[in-house]
Each structure stands twice: as structure tokens, then as C-alpha cells.
Design brief:
Largest sheet: 5 strands, antiparallel
CATH topology of the largest domain: Phosphorylase Kinase, domain 1
Distance between the termini: 59 Å
Number of strands: 12
Structural class: alpha+beta
Shape: globular
Bound molecules: adenosine-5'-triphosphate, manganese (II) ion
Number of helices: 8
Strand order of the largest sheet: 1-2-3-5-4
CATH architecture of the largest domain: 2-Layer Sandwich
Helix content: 40-55%
């Protein structure tokens, strides 16, 4: 009891510190109390040491850079110090759409209200990252999920986030297309369809391609899995066509099934 009270006090102080810090002023409204509590738990559990500035602010989630705690650093490459923290909004999010992506996934049955859906969504992204990694697809290393907060590798060079494919000029688009094709195939073979694959969700990092934003990925048993796969293939092919590659969405879709 005393311990609980102490923890509460510590938490309050910590929250004040974040709220007052210059970098977080802008984001203050993005965190509700439960999100603060989740962040605090991640600090206590040794996953996060300190929160940094925003990397991206979006409709469904904000991504922040942070200093990884001991337990995170263990998962990362030698010398890496930072993690990325993706905070899903529990308010003002399009959870009707989210529910559709969770249908038919045996890992996430019996979902209740909106909050529960967002929490399942966060766990789903962590679990999808793990599955993708095991399948040999380069994704940010998954580290932890707490409530609506996901901790993963910060794909960055000297503190600067890696650029997305839409932000770089690709030197060898043929090769890059080959890598993305192989990633789509491996994901499918591992039972997953990304569902939002495009140049906006692929990072270019020190010569590697890294697939991100995999929370909405569905299992191949999802009623719309084939439709999502078709769309992913078309998005990818049309981007690489614009880079001068002889790419075709329907051909990629078929190739994924045949191989
Ligand atoms: P939105 O609500 O804007 O759609 P989102 O769901 O697209 O957000 P993400 O794509 O996962 O969220 O992340 C948003 C941006 O943050 C990405 O485009 C990328 O630039 C950056 N980002 C996300 N995760 C990482 C990471 N692990 N390492 C480096 N940068 C990242
Ligand atoms: Mn994205």
C-alpha cells in the first residue's frame, strides 16, 4: 500500500517532468492518463529511459524517439541507444475500420469496446513484427507492447530516422523491387498480408529495405486477405513502374502464390 502510494507519487512527478519538458509541450494533449501510465510502466520495466521528440504525428498513432532502457538495448545491435515508441490513439481513431482488420484472426477474437480494440491492435502490431522477423522480413526489431504503446527498434542513422521510399531517390530500383517482392512472398508464406504496403511504409536504411506499419496486417484466413494482397501488389508495382521498372501488380500477385 505504501509502495503503491510511493509509486503514484513517483508517477506524478515523472508525468510533470514530461509535461514541462520543452519537447513534449506540443504533444501533451496526445497523452491521456492511461497512456502516461503505460509509458511509466515501460520505464519501470526497463524498456525506456527517457522520451524524446516526435518522429511522426498521424491520424491513428504518433511515433516518438526515445532512449532505450537496459531491456531494450539487449534486443538491439551493439551501440544502438534509441528506440521508437508508437503511441496509438485511444480517442479519435477510426476503430470501425480497425475492427474489420481483426475479424477472422484467431489471435484476437472476442473484442469488446473501442479501447479494447486499440489495445488489441497494439499487441497485433508487436506480434506481426515478430512473425515477419521470423519469416526473414526486415522489420524494426519488436521489443515490447504496453496498453496502446509499442516499443521497437528506431531505424535511424546518427539519430536521424531512416527515409521512406517516397522520400529517397532509389539508385537501383530493379534490385529494390526484387527485395520488396521477396518480402511480400515471405510474409504470405508466413501467413500474413501487410494490408497497407506502399512506398510510404518501406524505409531505406543503410542499403536495406525495412517494412514498417504492420499493425493492420491480417492473416491469410481473413475474409479480405486476397483483396488486400492484390492491393499491396498493385501499390508496390505502380510505385516501381514510376521508377522505370517493368513491374506489374497482377504478375506479383500470382508470383506470390506460385512460390
Ligand atoms: P498514421 O496515423 O500517420 O498513418 P502510421 O500508422 O502510418 O501513422 P507508421 O507508418 O508506423 O504509422 O509510422 C509513421 C512514420 O514514423 C513512418 O512513416 C516513419 O517515417 C516513422 N517511423 C515509424 N516507425 C519507425 C521506426 N521503427 N524507425 C524509424 N522511423 C519510424
Ligand atoms: Mn505508415
Amino acid at each position: 500500500d505504501r509502495i503503491a502510494r510511493e509509486r503514484d507519487r513517483e508517477f506524478d512527478q515523472w508525468r510533470k517532468r514530461i509535461k514541462n519538458s520543452e519537447r513534449f509541450k506540443v504533444q501533451e494533449s496526445a497523452f491521456d492518463d492511461a497512456t502516461f501510465a503505460a509509458l511509466y510502466k515501460l520505464v519501470q520495466d526497463g524498456y525506456v529511459d527517457a522520451l524524446g521528440g516526435p518522429v511522426s504525428t498521424g491520424k491513428e498513432a504518433n511515433v516518438y524517439e526515445a532512449l532505450g532502457g537496459e531491456r531494450s538495448l539487449k534486443e538491439l545491435a551493439d551501440g544502438a541507444e534509441q528506440v521508437a515508441i508508437k503511441v496509438y490513439r485511444t480517442r479519435a481513431t477510426n476503430f470501425r475500420d480497425m475492427r474489420e482488420y481483426l475479424v477472422g484472426d484467431p489471435r484476437f477474437e472476442e473484442l469488446g469496446d473501442k479501447k479494447e480494440i486499440v489495445l488489441a491492435w497494439t499487441r497485433k502490431e508487436l506480434s506481426n513484427l515478430e512473425r515477419a522477423r521470423k519469416a526473414g522480413v526486415r522489420v524494426p526489431t519488436p521489443i515490447a507492447a504496453q496498453r496502446n504503446v509499442l516499443v521497437m527498434e528506431f531505424v535511424a542513422t546518427e539519430g536521424q530516422r531512416a527515409r521512406r521510399l517516397d522520400e529517397v531517390s532509389i539508385e537501383n530500383p530493379e534490385t529494390a523491387y526484387g527485395v520488396v517482392r521477396e518480402y511480400v512472398r515471405r510474409l504470405y508464406a508466413a501467413g500474413l498480408v501487410h494490408g497497407d504496403l506502399s512506398e510510404y511504409n518501406v524505409l531505406f536504411y543503410e542499403g536495406q529495405l525495412v517494412i514498417i506499419d504492420i499493425g493492420q496486417a491480417v492473416t491469410i484466413h481473413h475474409p479480405n486477405a486476397e483483396e488486400f494482397l492484390e492491393r499491396d501488389c498493385e501499390n508496390v508495382a505502380s510505385f516501381f513502374r514510376r521508377q522505370g521498372v517493368d513491374a506489374d501488380g497482377a504478375e506479383l500477385y500470382e508470383w506470390v502464390h506460385e512460390n
